[in-house]
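Researcher: Quick test of sequence recovery. Tokens follow.
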């Protein structure tokens, strides 16, 4: 999500920026759109390559994940195993 947090990108450019397999990024992009966390918008520079952009829900989700990761990283620096995992409590569905 962070790769498109600053500016909308075509999925192909996100793939190159992340240096991962195109299928992986396309699958993630499809899931983000399906879950309402991102949307595809017309690309004025390339008709057949839409821009992937975070929705408001996507921006809020990314902010929450980033905050929890920051808290976990701080806990790792302090060496508390319970504190490391506490920020992630409740993140998993099911």
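Model:
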């Amino acid at each position: 999500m962070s790769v498109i947090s600053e500016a909308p990108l075509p999925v192909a450019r996100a793939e190159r920026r992340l240096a991962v397999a195109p299928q992986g990024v396309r699958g993630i992009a499809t899931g983000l759109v399906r879950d309402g966390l991102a949307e595809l918008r017309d690309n004025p520079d390339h008709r057949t390559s839409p821009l992937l952009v975070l929705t408001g829900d996507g921006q809020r989700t990314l902010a929450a994940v980033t905050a929890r990761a920051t808290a976990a990283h701080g806990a790792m620096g302090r060496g508390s195993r319970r504190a490391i995992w506490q920020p992630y409590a409740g993140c998993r569905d099911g």
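Helices lie at 11-18, 22-34, 56-78, 81-85.
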